[in-house]
Structure formats: structure tokens, C-alpha cells
Amino acid sequence: MKPLKFLKPLSYVYLLFFNISQLIRKAKQKKLNCRVISVGNITVGGTGKTPMVIYLAELLAKRNTCVVSRGYKSKIISKNPIVVSDGKRIFVGPKISGDEAYLVARSLKGIPVVIGKDRYKAGLFSIEKFGVDTIILDDGFQHLGLYRNIDLVCINALNPFGDFLLLPAGYLREPVNGLSRADIILITRCDKVSDEKILEIENTIKIYNKNAHIFHAYFKKDIFDRNRNKVDLKKLHEKNIIAISGIAVPEDFEKTIKELELNLLFHRKYPDHYFFKDKDIRRFYSDAAEFQAVVITTAKDVTRLPEDFPCYVLDVRLEIKEKDELTNHLEKKLG
To answer: How are strands ordered across the β-sheet holding 184-188?
Structure first.
């Protein structure tokens, strides 16, 4: 998607309200009696924030860890925190928790996931209920109302700085100089750009933050069936493929399918976090029958499809090139 530069005047209005809200949050900042690691971004969608939350939780599995999320697009009415998972069992579905929190809960074993609009209250609840000593704050970079020990920011190498335009004209959630608050900056999709481009991104980061530790990541992709069995790609090479997605960067999903040399007939795209309606499901069944095709969707989108809907799932797992260095850095910072 291209930036909408004609909306630039509205970006100044956005910036004004953003700055005011951040001043208020900072003034009212609260601190939890545990270690807090915030994982966030400065641009909307496609940075790999959710895979990084999962990766980080697994990396810190030896600690007593919990993931706390606001539950974006959730149907929460209560102001009280809600346990999505206690690490053993999932208690609510994606419509209640939001698709991202549900995906995190489904991906992690032995690590609780809690949602709440008031993340300080959700953190207190997590400490009291699960006795956690470390909280991973999902999408917390702009949430200055809660003190954190480490701020980790994910940057998409394909569009690292959102065309330097704030919402709604561009993709920036806050000005790029916000990177000055970051302790760790993770450049994702490093395998999709040249070494020269990575160096250019790093040099831009250093303009705003000379002290941040920079790490590099790529995504490992596999396809599974609904029973979570890994699928041999040779089996899919013989089939017609219909793609379905409601994510921030559908172009990346489509490009991956083509890179896997699958016979993609077409791609039905929906808005990010879209909950598929009955009429959409009927359409998917009709498409599959008409074109004698199978459906492939993303790990995030499958949480918003009926459990008995037949499809394959493209699962994305984040891999960090400097895993040992990151582990050592976290241990040193967290104590």
C-alpha cells in the first residue's frame, strides 16, 4: 500500500493528540513489582511483533513468565483482566481475546496469557494469580503508563520507517525519533533485502539511538493442516490454491505462497483482524468447489475461521540470527 500524502494535514492533528496522550501517560506511569519487557513497533502491522512475543516467551521459559496484552479487537466489556490461557488450557476464544492474544496463547505451553485494557491492573492480576516474575507486554511501546525494564522494537526491513509519515497519511504510529526510547531494536525480514539496505537501516537507527542493541531476524515458514500436522509441499504442488487473509500486509503472505511455487489462483483479502462472517465462509466453500481448489490461510486468520473449516495454514516462526547474544543481553538486563 502506498502512503496517502493528501492526508498529511490530518497527521499533524494525530501528532498533537499523540503527544498530549503520551505526556499524560508518562506523568501517571506506574511500576509493577516484577520485570517488564515491552515488545512493540513504530509502524502499523507487519513488523513481526506477535511472532517476537512468542519467541521471547519461549526464550525466557526458565523464568516465571506471563504475556500481558490489551487484547486488540477483543470483545471485552469488563474492565477486569481476563485469563486467555493459564499455560495449560485456553479459556476464551479469539472473539473474546482478540486474534493476536489467542494466537499467542495457542502457541505457548506453560506460559499464561492475560488481557486487559488497563495493563497495570492486568500485570498486578498476573503477579497475584500466577506468581510471575517477568511480564512480556505485547504492543507496549507507546503505552508509557506502565514502566518497563526493556523496550524492544520490531522494524520491518521492507518498510522500516513507514515512509516517515504519521497516520493517517503514512504508517508511523509515532515519529521515528521515538526509537530513542528503545533498548533493543530487531530488524525483521532481513532475508528479503540486501546487506546494503540493512546497513542503511542501521545507520538511520543510529541517528536517533546510538546505544540500542540491534539484532536481525527472518521468518521460517511451514504449512500445516488443521490438526497441526506439517504438510509436505509436494502434496500441495498438485493442487489449485485459494488464499484467504485479513492481515496488515497481505502482499507478503501472497508473495510467500508464490515463492513456495504453489499454484495460486487468487487471493481474497480482508481488513486486518477481520472476523469472517457466515456469508464469507459460504463463499470460501463455493470457491473451493467451483475451482477444485484448497484454501490456505495464515496462523492468525485461522483463529477466526470455524474449527471444522477445511484449510491449510501457513505458519510463520521468527528466527533471530544472533540468538545467543540476545539471550545473554536479556539475562544481563533482567538479572
So the answer is: 82-85, 113-115, 65-69, 134-138, 35-41, 150-156, 184-188, 213-224, 312-320, 293-298, 240-245, 263-269
Asked whether this chain's domains 12-218+320-334 and 227-310 adopt the same fold, the reply is yes
3-state secondary structure of 80: coil
Q: Does domain 12-218+320-334 have CATH number 2.40.40.20?
A: no
Which grid coordinates belong to 57? 516467551
- Tens of pLDDT along 120-147? 999 999 999 999 999 999 999 999 999 9
Question: Which band of pLDDT confidence, cut at 50, 70 and 90, is reported for residue 79?
Answer: confident
CATH architecture of 227-310: 3-Layer(aba) Sandwich (3.40)
Pairing of strands 184-188, 65-69: unpaired
Mean pLDDT of 80-89: 96
Is omega for the bond preceding 168 within 30 degrees of 0, making it cis?
yes
- Domain parsing of the chain, residue ranges: 12-218+320-334, 227-310
The answer on pLDDT for 4 being more than 80 is yes
Q: How far is CA 38 from the centre of its chain?
A: 12
For residues 333 and 330, give the distance between their C-alpha atoms in angstroms, rounded to a whole number: 5
pTM for this one?
0.93
Q: Give strand pairing partners of 90.
A: 85
Q: What is the CA radius of gyration of the chain?
A: 20
Quick one: pLDDT at residue 5? 87
Cell of 152: 524492544
